[in-house]
Amino acid sequence: MFSAELFTQTLIAGLMIGVLYALMALGITFIYSIVRMINWAMGEFYMLGSYIQYVVVAHALGRDLWWLAVIISTAGTFLVGYLLEPILIKPMYARAMERRDDYATVVTIALLLMLRSLAVVIGGPYQFRPETNLPVMWVGPLPMEGARVAASVCALLALLVFYLVISRTWIGLALRAMAQNRVAAQTSGVDVFRLDAMAFAIGVALAGLAGALLAPLFLVYPTNGAVATVKGFEIIVIGGLGSIPGALIGGLLLGVVESLGAGFISSSYQNAYGFLLVLLVLLVRPYGLFGERGREA
Amino acid sequence: MNRRVVLGTIATALTVAASAALAQEPMVFGVITPLSPPGETSLGQQVKRGSEIAVDYINEKGGVLGRKVVLSIHDTAGKNEAGVAAYRRLVSNEKAVAVFGFIHSGVNIAVNEVAKEMGVPTMGTQTGAGDVTAKHYDIAFRTHAVDPPRAATWLGWAKKNGFKRLSVLAETTDYGIGLAKATEAQNKSMNLGMEIQTIMFDRTTTDLLPQLLQVKAFKPDAIINVGVGQPLDLMITQATTVGLLPTVPMVTSYDAPGRPQHWQLHKEQGVGVHFIAFYTQKSKLSDVGEWFVKKYQEKYNEPPIYSALNGFANAIVFAQAIEMAKTTEPKALIKALETGSFKGWSSVPVTFPQAEGALWHNWSPPLMILKYTKVNQTQADAEVAYTLGDN
Question: Phi/psi at B353 (nearest 5 deg)?
Fold first, then answer.
């Protein structure tokens, strides 16, 4: 079934989910660009953010203050990340390990399992849904949950704020310096260990923000972060590892391809379209649309 | 000679002692059910509760063949490979004599492929796909409605309401594919002349908006929601957003809305949802069924739903069959299940005839469609919108 209106609606749906996908990918790409490690537990910080959102809305603030709960969830996830980094990630640099990638993989996968099991123990295997007071809104010809529109707007704002912090502030300058040359940054007086913790916490807080914003739409349950992790990695392959514009464009592309594919080709393969896009990008630009070709000394 | 006699006496004494020890060893009933996402956890929890009460009931009555019964519960998270691994462990390591608790058809079908070699019988607690029993394996039993009567129920309901256009949104699992095919096949074989739009989706998807936009463009009279767990709830939420619900009635393919979480998740959006059900508090129960309902209410301070009743019934049916066979030997147990008539939760006795197709070794509960008419309604208060055979 095809009509111009249906195509427009499906395209808008794809763009809206694409912005949310971008937010999921941003934390992964940011942590990689600064700390040079892949955080496999990123989806679990997304899950943590969604649980905090539910608990705060359902048991403390109520639906009218959902936006305050989003701030609390993001801050809470930031705090957990900031406290965990010195215990789990810092030894990777402080002890000058030879096989840092292996260490990071093992530690973050262990963290993934621990957080997921903790969610099952504390909240049980059930699904929850934090409420908002947002009504259904019209985006062009398409009715959308108010929470989805708010999540997309917040995601765009978060991307903008994040870009400004990275490009216009001293801390952003220091983080960029670390991303380019860690030793040179340290020689210039940058406290790289403190900034490692900061970068890790900011990265996981972005995942927590995504989890809090999407909780009313995609529900809260112990494994809800798995999708965020998969989509996040698909996007950073498409957009390029370490690229913020790449995360946004990659997210939008993935959202649109999945949406149009599901709407007009076959809905059965909705998730497969994303992987086809990943394969296509890998064939044409192996370092991603906005990524830089790796340099080895 | 004397030495031989002494050795023989010792050997006999040891054999008797070993037999006595074996007789005292608890009998293991295996439960393979989803207790973590993306499996249908709320139903898995209900099966767990029901089977735990069943074991209490059996042990209070003196156990089975003089042995106490214990449960060994394994979580599949709805994944086939986890179910197969659990079955192997149950049979090889834990010496389980019966295995039940299945909710996801795919898991049940995958386990049956292994069970037909290992021999210990399985019972589908709430698995609807035809292939669970349609392969006619000796070890495969089920106490749940299969695809054809379920499809017949919503088609009958649609016919009764004069509907002509149906949208079927089904997940790409054995369960979803089976029900989608059964709906299309019966529409043709019964000459109902309905126009049916079938859309299949991956059950791990987090966004059903593209699919629901296609449904909206089709302008159906009703929607059949063949999602299990998270996709089922996602479809209710997103169908409301795009303006399909509550104008276009939606029937969920099983009784998930019967659980209390339905209202926690959907609030006023949950009103108007129709769902296939196999039990209401108005259903006629056996004496053990009545005992169970009372016990469950006392223990959990809420009425049981069908999954709990079936978890309970599976355990007591196996217990009765073992008593009838007078052994836990699999072939004798299977023979007893095939020839006996057992007491379950319903007033209708449980039997497993060697019937045609998916009805092989299958006992089916009565089927109906219930409809919520106000917020926080319980399944017991839901309106009976249709009972199979009404028209």
Answer: -70, 155
| Residue A230 near residue A66 (C-beta atoms within 8 A) | no
Phi, psi of B67 (to 5 degrees): -110, 145
Return the structure tokens found at A267.
């809905």
**Amino acid letter, residue B251:** V
Locus of tokens 């089975």: B64
Q: Report the pLDDT value the prediction gives residue A9, as an integer from 0 to 100.
A: 87
Q: In this structure, are residues B303 and B345 in contact, taking their beta carbons and an 8 Å threshold?
A: no
How does pLDDT run across B183-218, given as a tens digit for each residue? 999 999 989 999 999 999 988 888 898 999 999 999
Residue matched to tokens 């990265």 = A203
Q: Do residues A134 and A147 make contact, with C-beta atoms less than 8 angstroms apart?
A: yes
CB B353 within 8 A of CB B337: no
Say how far apart CA B106 and CA B363 lie, in whole Å: 19
What's the pLDDT tens digit per position in B217-243? Answer: 999 999 999 998 888 998 998 999 888
Strand-pairing partners, residue B225, are B169, B252
CB-based contacts of B345, cutoff 8 Å, min separation 6: B279, B285, B286, B288, B289, B292, B309, B310, B312, B313
**Are the beta carbons of A126 and B230 separated by less than 8 Å?**
no
**Contact assessment for residue B212 and residue B239, using Cβ atoms and an 8 Å cutoff:** yes
Which residues lie closer than 8 Å to B330 by C-beta, 6 or more apart?
B97, B119, B120, B121, B139
B172 touches chain A (CB under 8 A): yes
Q: What share of chain B is helix, strand, coil (3-state, %, to 5)?
A: 50, 15, 35
Q: A239, A159 in Cβ contact below 8 A?
A: no
> CB distance B207–A222 less than 8 Å?
no
Residue B341 has a CB neighbour count (10 Å cut-off) of 10
DSSP state of A59: I
φ, ψ dihedrals at B221, nearest 5°: -80, -25
Do residues B370 and B361 touch, judged by C-beta distance below 8 A? no
For A268, the closest of B200, B214, B264 (CB atoms) is: B200
| Nearest-Cα residue of chain A relative to residue B219 | A1
Give me the interface pTM, i.e. the ipTM. 0.81
Tell me if B197 sits within 8 A of B255, measured CB to CB.
Answer: no
Residues of A in contact with B103 (CB under 8 A): none
Residue B95: DSSP 8-state: -
Handedness of CA B345, B346, B351, B353 (dihedral sign): negative
Helix (H) or strand (E) holding B313: helix B306-325
* Residue A13 in contact with partner chain B when CB distance is under 8 A: yes
Q: Dihedral of CA A207/A210/A212/A218: which sign?
A: negative
Q: Give tens-digit pLDDT for B122-174.
A: 999 999 888 999 999 999 999 998 888 899 999 999 999 999 999 999 999 88
Q: Find chain B residues with C-beta within 8 A of A126's C-beta.
A: 41-42, 261
Choose among B358, B348, B146, B345: nearest CA to B254: B146
Q: CA-to-CA distance for B250 and A267, rounded, in angstroms? A: 20
Min CA distance, A126 vs chain B (Å)? 7
Cα distances from B341 to residues B99, B336, B363, in angstroms, run: 19, 9, 11
Please state whether the peptide bond connecting residue B246 to the residue before it is cis, i.e. omega within 30 degrees of 0.
yes
Cis peptide before B26 (omega within 30 of 0): no
Distances (CA, A) of B354 to B339, B341, B360: 9, 13, 5
Phi, psi angle pair for B344, to nearest 5°: -115, -155
Taking an 8 Å cut-off on Cβ atoms, the answer to whether B264 and A13 are in contact is no
Q: What is the DSSP letter of B342?
A: B
Predicted TM-score (pTM) of the model is: 0.78
Token reading at B66: 């003089």
